[in-house]
Design a protein that fits this description.
heterodimer, A: alpha+beta, 1 helix, B: alpha/beta, two-stranded parallel ribbon, 7 helices, 5 strands
């Protein structure tokens, strides 16, 4: 069975956010 | 809630973003009520929130939750069908709708936190249409090839975890 990732809409928005001077982090990456 | 209303009234432009319907209980407070989708859409449209859709190249679909969609339409006269789709499309490169969708979307059976309750059999019975659809094979349906499903339904996300 194909795996489908389910994301909360706000989580998707947060993961897509562009903030000047801040590089996007991969999931699970340490702060 | 009254405390929140009071604190908002102290603002120069009192605005509250919430699920639609709150205005029915606070009609004469002089507060502008917005659905949370409306506020986010406005922020994206005006550039206050910037999004990079290249981070999500995979085929993505959207699940309409009953409460924000058809139940909101029935109770308050506006169902949030298009706004969350538009927001999703600002975040992903490839979007496709499931079928059926919007007001005809199948209930997942987990609404109102029912997934965490002890009535598993009743919940699964209520969500049987959703379960059957996920089992059905439809090679021409591009939504079945989607690798990401987006929802504003917290229970569905937990249920799938």
């Amino acid at each position: 069975m194909m795996h489908v990732e389910v994301k909360y809409l706000w989580e998707l928005v947060a993961d897509s956010l562009v903030i000047e001077g801040v590089e996007p982090k991969e999931h699970g990456e340490e702060e | 809630m009254n405390a929140i209303i009071s604190s908002c009234l102290s603002e120069a432009t009192p605005t509250i973003a919430t699920r639609l319907g709150l205005q029915n209980w606070f009609k004469d407070e002089g507060v502008k009520f917005l659905g949370i989708f409306d506020l986010l859409k406005e922020y994206i449209e005006t550039g206050r929130v910037k999004l990079d859709k290249t981070r999500h190249p995979q085929l993505t679909t959207y699940h309409d939750p009953c409460n924000y969609a058809r139940k909101s339409e029935r109770a308050f006269g506006h169902g949030y069908y298009e706004e969350p789709r538009w927001i999703t499309q600002q975040c992903v490169e490839n979007f496709v709708d499931m079928y059926p969708n919007r007001a005809n979307n199948f209930c997942c059976g987990a609404g109102g936190g029912a997934w965490a309750m002890p009535y598993a059999e009743e919940r699964i019975y209520y969500g049987r249409s959703r379960r059957n659809r996920s089992r059905r094979r439809a090679p021409n349906s591009s939504s079945l090839r989607a690798t990401t499903a987006v929802t504003d339904h917290e229970e569905l996300r937990k249920e799938s975890a």
